[in-house]
Amino acid sequence: MTMQIMRNKRKWKRMLPVLLAALLWAEGMLGTAYASEPAIRDVPEAEALQTVAAEEAGSSEEDVKTPSGGNEEKPAEEDGTESGSAEEDSRNPEGGNGQTDGEDGAGAVPGQEDGSDEETQTDLEEEDKPVTGGEDESAGEETPLPGTDEEPDQAEEEESDVSPEKPAVSENTVSENTISENAAEDEMTADWSGTPTLGEPPVLADAAGEYGVYSDNSVSRQTEGNRHQTPGVGEIIDRYRAYPWSLGVSNSYSVKPSASEPYKAGHLSDESLENALNLLNFIRYVAGVPANVELSEDYTEKVQAGALLNRVNGKLDHNPVKPDGFPKELYDTGKEGCAQGNIAAGYGNIAKSLLNGWMYDGDAANIDRMGHRRWVLNPAMTQTGFGAVDSYSAMYAFDRKGSGITDYVAWPAQNMPIELMNGSGTPWTLSLGSDYEKASFKDVTVTLRDVTNKKSWTFSGSNANGAFKVNIEYYGMPNCIIFRPNNISYNKDSRFQVTVSGIKRKDGEEVKDATISYNVDFFSLEEEPAEVEEVVLNKDTLHLLKDVEGKQEDTLSATVNPSNARDKKLVWKSKDESVATVDENGRVVAVGVGMTEISATAANDVQGVCSVKVSDYSLQSDAEDFSFDEETKTYRLSFDLTMNAAPGRLIVMDGDPAGTGGVTTDMVTWISENENVAVADIDGRITPLAVGETLIWADVDDGLAVLKCMVTVEDSSLPQIEMREKNCTLTIKKDAAGNQQKESRQLRLYFTPPDSKWVNRGQNYVKWMSSDPAAAAFVVEQPDGAQDAEPAEDGGNTVSGNTISGNTVTVTAVGAGETEISAVIVNEDGNPVTDSDGKTAQTSCTVTVQEETALADKDVPRPVVLTNTHTRLRDVALPEGWRWKEPDTELSQFAGGKTKKFAALYQPADAGANILPAERLLEVCFLTVENISVGLRTAEGTEWRNTTLTVGQNAVCYVNYSFTEALEQLESDSDYKNNVWFQKQKKEILEAIGETTVWSSSKPDVVSVEGTAGGARLTAKSVGSATVKAGIKLGSKTFNASVKLTVKEPEGMLTIKGVENFTYIGGAGGSGQAEEKYTGLLSDFQTGKANQINSKITLTLPGATKVTAKSGNAKVVAVKSAAAEGNGFTVSLIVKAAGTAELTLTGNDAAKTSKTLRLVVGDAEPGLSDESVTLNLRQTTGVGISLYPAKSPEGAEYKITYVTIGSDENSAKFILEKGTQDNSYLIKAKSSTGAGTYKVTIRAAAEGKTYNLPLTVKVASKNPVYKIKQMRKLNLFYKNEESLLQIDTDETLTRLECVGLADYSIIKKDGCYYIRTEEGASLKSVKKGMLKLFFSGWQGAYTTSFTVNVEQKTPKINWETGKVTLYPKAGIQSIWIRAKNAEMISWDSVSVQKNSGKAKGNYTVEVDREKGGLRLSGKNLNQADSFQMQIFLSDTENWAQKETVTYSLQVKVNMGQPAITLENKTLQLNANAAYRGYDAAATAVKWKDGGTLTADQDVRVSVYCDAKDPKGKALVENSQVVFSVKNAKVSVRLNNKTVDAGTYKYLVQAAKDGQIWRTPLTLKVVNTDAEKAVKIKAKGSIDVLNRDGSFMTLTPSLKAVSGEYVIPEDREVKLTGRDAHLFRASWSADGKTIELRAKGKETLVIKYQYTVTPVLTLRNVNGVTEEISTPAVKFKVKQGSVKVSASPKTALAYSGAYNSVGIDMNAVLKGAPAPEIERVVLTGNTDAFTYVYNKDGEGTLTMRDTGRAAKGKNYSLQFKVFFAEQADNVKPVTVRYTVKVK
Asked: What's the count of helices (H) and strands (E) in the chain, helices before strands?
């Protein structure tokens, strides 16, 4: 190994001439070295040359590897700037020292392919290596220099292999001063095999609260005024020579350490310690901090033991573990040394660890804090210690006994030896002292400028041309700014200027913005310092302003040439400190007006001089109304075009006019902001032109100072005034509650000219008067001491006959009558103002108040319409004084049984003047004859039960009308029953119909007909049949009805003698009479065998030889036979079951006499509700049945006393449990019961007898039926996104869970289930899983596969612009950006980040939570810029983790002047008479690509007439249109005058500090009728059965009138028009559309075209409101198709129980809530059944005991279902239903 080292060293010696030539070429030709020059003179020349050669050899490689083998993180750099690989990826502090072997010597790292990092440095300028010492020689000798052909021969390569018996010597431990032929034998065993490293710096954990203070708790704090001291070049060189140091001094020991047992710390030799201390103090001396640090033996022992601990453990650690066998006391000492010191490994010696390691500190793990360097430069350090064991080094860092520095410490220092630089990758640091507040990463901006080549670098939180950090942790000085530029190089002649802004300096109790600026001049320790030859100031002249912030001071910088001048100290001096002062940093501050010179003089009297002028400008004027407001610092000049129109002159003064000051000699430019108002000539003479305000700017010395004077021009002449209308009408009406509603309206004045003195001076300049306050008065606040005011009905204001206000007043109706409302301009005392001719400015308007006539509710008629004869509303008569409002309304389309409302007006004939008709909605009863029928009744009014008459018998035949039922319902309402007009018209209609009725008989000889007032009188004249017919003609339609009658001879006498085992109850039988009724018990009819006779009827019928009998219910009572017996007849009966049977007995006598008997058979046997039930084994609730108690013949129920399941085999498989209702039971299967059909017995006891009731039970095992649908996709963009799960099932779901879906969950809200995303849900999440359902009454859970339907959809935010431009010279450094769909973002929770890309400036983006937008701001913008900014919005409350919305914005910085533009370049006004007093339009003034002008920009906007358009100028001069400006918005309005339609041209101007920008504005005037000015689009439909859920969407649009819709708090929209009372309208949630709905409980019809007109309130840009009517909306309503089902689907009725069955009606309207069922009517079989509906969806069907329902028959029933809000002309829904009678 030794031979190999010597052989390689000889090769290096042969290369010395080549290396020297390379060095000379690099310094002489390129002028730049990329690493330090030889650090000390006594290092062998070969070593020094090797350092440079190694650097240059490395610079030729494609890539330079990171010291950590490729795994080290690059330092975080902001905003996607260049990687800065020269600083981070190539930083090997030893220039290749400690590298693993590689052919190219470039420091290849094991495990990393050469050139694998494409972002690493390839440009020569970006090579980054710290200074190399000679330690690399041994490694270098194994690798030939680039450019040579010499390669080690094979034998040498083989010889260099290390044998297993003798470990190889580490290259990192070889010192350049100890290499000799036997050097390897003297070295210790290899201890470090990696690249040199530092690890993390130690942080002082107990320094909380000591920010900016560098003292120990036991020592007093530093005194004020300790600042860093910058030594000169000569002083630095002298210090270097007096206290020499060398990087070549190897670590030697006075006590040799032992890294194996027995462990011994050892001690560095005095030579090593002194060399390290000299280097430390030299570095501190250069930096300007105390350089008298001494060695402490205590500290040395600690860090020496610490170095040993790290050496033994084989790694760097500030908290090392105790090795086995390590002495406890030594461990405690070493642990303290590690914790309190800088540590390093692999640098070879302690000096290199200090300079190349701790002072470089720029590796990826340390550049974000630079803690090692900050401890080395800690001003408070007074003592330290050094330790080293093999390649492990340590330095004590926590000594803080000295004083701190109050200003700052910079590295590189201001006079910087190039030898102390660690290559182009050396980071720069600026540590701030206690004079400064904590630095903020987002606020600080650093500008680094290369004075030689003018190149600059900018560093900020938003953008950095390299690495940039701010660290405030406690490493020495805790307030540190760190930056490292990309693409930089340094040499001994390099000069840089550093400017740091965005920091805060303490000034007593105040904290002020501050900037630090200093120069860094590099030089070489090898060159002799020169004398100062030249002092160059950056400015030759300087003009300052006294007491003007930002212009009262400036800082001069001086460049001392040559750069290696021995003494660069300068003495700054002011020739006249009464004019300006200068401090030691060149900061010049204005003191007083005058001239002086500022000089910077070197020690050899060479100086630079700057001429300084200080000014203090003010304005003076010879005009009368000139003033200066001390508080606001504002000059004002006033003119009156009538009283004071002479020009006045403004003069710029410099200095105190009362003292030595006078008229300025500097150039002054005069500018008028608004030359419409006043102009300024070159001498400052101001000439007023028109009423208004304008700023006059005096621009002094080309923008040095801009003085402002506000010029106000008034005109005291009286304007002409007029009101919008000459006549208007107010009304007094009553609302539905009977309260008076007095109409109010606003009256408005219009002025010509519109901006006179009287209008502009305040709010109270018009006196309003009412000639008759009893008719109309003004709504005012109660004035103090008012005598003629009375409280208004609203209770908050009063009404008065006169008031003083502005150009508007609110007048309200008081009582019927007429009054003159007059207005006159008044002065401050309230007296009318007169002009020179004694005339006043006044106008008037006639107000007529009309009061509604009095009308009592009892006097309101309720008309009746017969739609068959009444075709229009005018056909319907009304009482005197009444008339229909819409008399031509067609009535046929309203046919139906419900009342409808129509507007009618009432005004008595004797109503006086100004009395309004009372308007009421009259309820009109609609009657329509759709069909007729005829019926029979006796003369006494009893209904006839059949159609048989006997000869000579009389009857009355009458007509039934189809509206009879509806009419009867109305009669039940007392409002109709007691309404005189209703009763009168009803009677008249019925009489009129009766009069038109024509009666006839087909056989008058059989039945004769005689018409009467109530119908027809019938007389049976002879035996036979005849048809009686009624005919009615109503309008064009004839209605007919008839009845067939049978006439027979008078009946004989059929007498019932008795009915065996039955008891007679009552009745006589016979035609038209009640039937005879008999009752019996079934138990009394028992026989030995079935179907045996068990009862007989005995009767007599004279004249008959035969009697026949017929049973209507043979399964209850059957007729066996009928035979003559004795003098009468016997009818044999078989009584079979309980129930009712009607028996008809008919004889064969001449009259065929007949009689009906009702036989009622009673039995206690109850009935079952079902014959067959299905039981599901999976259900736990079983299946329900009910028992119907039987009824006795008298109608009383037999009580069921006991119920149980049978004991037979089938029945034993089930359990019977009591239900919750009376006589209800549950059947449940036992656990052993399987599927199948079972015939079981239910045993029930009643009246002491037990009955076996058969029941079929079908047992099945089926899962519940359900269907689950996810209603919408889950958008994974949002946090906790939810989607409703629609679950269709007849069962009751009690719980729902998801299985296998880890990123989703099921939640329940308001009875509904939702699937929700959980944290971490993504498109890659498992979406296929299972849902587990739990149902009430079902066993276990039921699972179904389920796939979550998701999407990843970022909301689209529409921003108003995609590009913005900032104009810093115009003060435009901030822009507000609006989102067009701002509702998409929750502005309270959203946050924003941005990436400024390659921006040159410092930019911030903030959320404007109040306005809902973003504010982009630039800071320190001093150069043009253009870049693409990516803005990232995030919302941790509402958006999923890491989800952002990206907004790409093109940002430009323009250092010139901006241009303006308009948001709307054309404004439109409608000069139609309907709008000429209202219409106005506005546009925002914007910077071109720069956002809207804002108040903080202090820009004034005005409007000019375009000289090219005289018509436009005439409009303004004639006050036909009025322009105004407020908050950078230009508005124009009509002034209640006629304006010709056309296009007019104007100019909009923006001005600031003498800068003026203009852009054209077009005014378009149209004359569009009111009905065309607004359009409305309607879509959708209204379903009368879904009045809340269905609506028409009305979209209004303003076509020829401007404004925004005023949406009231209740969002209601006023409706007018014929059908307005039937509908309601409201604004939608987004305020863009109107939703039109039908009112509840109002009767509507389909196929009729309804008409309503929405009335909207508009507000123009000036805040004036106007009611406008849209075009009428015409539409038809519909009625959706409703499906109605009855439950249960069928019912059982028992003939002996006459039981009731609950039948529920369920209505379904697709896509809407179930409509309310108003009533259900049973049609057909009403003699056998009744049905009662209770309006809750429930109804009861009951079998009558009439005997009409026969046992064993199935009856098909029909229910007519009517809905509460159905259309009146739509037929009801029919539901068919089956009842089985048992």
From this structure: 19, 119
**Contact (CB, 8 A) for 732 and 850:** yes
Contact of 396 with 299, CB cutoff 8 Å: yes
| Calpha distance 49→153 (Å, rounded) | 25
Residue with tokens 């005096």: 698
Q: Tokens representing 1188?
A: 């119907």
* HSE-up of residue 71 (Cα within 13 Å, Cβ side): 6
Residue 160 pLDDT greater than 90, yes or no: no
Query: Which H/E stretch holds residue 727?
Result: strand 727-734
Cβ atoms of 842 and 823 closer than 8 Å: yes
Among the listed ranges 126-140, 797-811, 1210-1224, 1621-1635, which one has the minimum average pLDDT value? Answer: 126-140
Q: Which residues lie below 8 Å from residue 910, measured CB to CB, with a gap of 6+? A: none
d(CA 1497, CA 832): 42
| Cβ–Cβ < 8 Å for 1333, 1341 | yes
- Which residues are CB-contacts of 773 (< 8 A; sequence separation ≥ 6)? 788, 799, 800, 801, 814, 819
Residue 453: name the closest of 485, 420, 483 by CA.
485
pTM reported for the whole predicted model: 0.72
Q: CA–CA separation, 1282 vs 1316, rounded Å?
A: 4
1264 pairs with which residues across the strands?
A: none
Convert 337-383 into a string of H (helix), E (strand) and C (coil).
HHHCEEEEECCCCHHHHHHHHHCCCCCCCCCCCCHHHHHHCCCCCCE
Cβ atoms 1755, 1779 nearer than 8 A: yes
Q: What is the CA radius of gyration of the chain?
A: 55
CA angle 350-353-356, nearest 5°? 135
Give the separation between CA 1308 and CA 604, rounded to whole angstroms. 90
Distance CA 1479, CA 1473 (A): 10
242: buried, middle or exposed (CB in 10 Å: 19+, 13-18, 0-12)?
exposed
Handedness of CA 673, 679, 683, 684 (dihedral sign): negative
1684 touches 933 (CB < 8 A): no
- Could you give the CA distance from residue 819 to residue 800 in angstroms, rounded to a whole number? 13
Edge to edge, the sheet with strand 776-780 lists 720-723, 744-752, 808-813, 776-780, 798-800, 789-791
Tens digit of pLDDT for each residue in 1483-1510?
999 888 777 787 777 888 999 999 899 9
Residue 280 three-state SS:
helix
Beta bridge pairs of residue 1252: 1243
Alpha-carbon span 18 to 144, nearest angstrom? 13
For 756-790, the pLDDT digits (tens) are 777 766 667 899 999 999 999 998 865 544 444 45
Distances (CA, A) of 424 to 55, 482, 490, 910: 11, 15, 7, 109
**DSSP label at residue 1322:** -
| DSSP 8-state class, residue 584 | T
| 3-class state of residue 287 by DSSP | helix
Q: How far apart are CA 267 and CA 253, in angstroms?
A: 5
Tell me whether residue 149 is exposed, middle or buried, using C-beta atoms within 10 angstroms of its C-beta: 0 to 12, 13 to 18, 19 or more: exposed
Q: Which two tokens stand for residue 373?
A: 């360097």
C-alpha span between 1575 and 402 (Å, rounded): 84
Percent pLDDT > 90 in the chain is 61
* Distance separating alpha carbons of residues 988 and 990, to the nearest angstrom: 6
State mean pLDDT over 1500-1525. Answer: 92
Task: Count CB neighbours of 1281 within 10 A.
Answer: 23
d(CA 863, CA 877): 8
Q: Is 1718 exposed, middle or buried (0-12, 13-18, 19+ CB in 10 A)?
A: middle
First to last CA, the chain: 121
Whether the upstream peptide bond of residue 144 has omega within 30° of 0, thus cis, is: no
Pairing, β 1682-1687 against β 1717-1723: unpaired
User: What's the pLDDT at 1401?
Assistant: 77
Closest CA to 513 of 504, 521, 500: 504
